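pinned: reference chain
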Amino acid sequence: MEEKYKLGSKLRDAPFLLNYYLVLLRMKRYEKASVIVEELIQLFSNNLKTTTTDEIQHFADSKARQNKNFEAILFYYIAAQSTVVQFQEILNNISNKTEWMMEEQNYLENFAKQFVVPLMQSVLKKLRTLTFDHPSNKCSATVSSMISIAKFQSRLSDLCEKDILFKAITIMKLDLKEKAEKHKMFGICFEMLGVMYQREHHINASKKYMVKAKKIYNQATDFSDNEEKVNRLSNCDTAESSHNVSRRFQSSDDDWILDAY
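pinned: its structure tokens
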């Protein structure tokens, strides 16, 4: 029998809490559901000490294939409690599954905002408390996870997504000092800010962040290959070329934004 099914048998000791979690989500009682999630994690951590992160992820994958999406999100989240290396992958799994659910049932946007986003932020908070073999690895894991959360929030039209990018930039500056300019993730934060401000028709701010992103990409030493670098620079060039077209939408409130970074 495969491990993912063995894991299912280990969890039969918690049917009440699991069913209660599902009922609360269907009733849109997201705050109470979050409390039950933490109780489930405590219960599972006491009973699944020999279970690996991969086993839990495989179990979550099996729930996703069965379209048991609330359960899949729960077990992806539980998987994040037992790893120091797979946070971005787990967050992407959570966001992808939630987005798929929202495409099928558009009323679930409140579920995404009120339940999934706090869940993802909790993963990030845990990550910052962990010990890594090198400080730069912790910084990389943190910022890549923050970028995943910002992308997810932007798909929800959630204006808070810029806040997390500014925090990611600050973390990289504090942890890596001047070496931050050598990392593509630093540029991605600025590029995403440029896209977000352009979407809001803050054209001057958008242009400023795109120029900054291009400067970082030209200095970055961690691109997987030259094609990746060229594609990133091309994205910035495309956005910059559209600024002139969009300038007629320019807001008069941009000046305070330009001094942010």
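why pinned: The radius of gyration is 20 Å. The CA atoms of residues 50 and 199 lie 47 Å apart.
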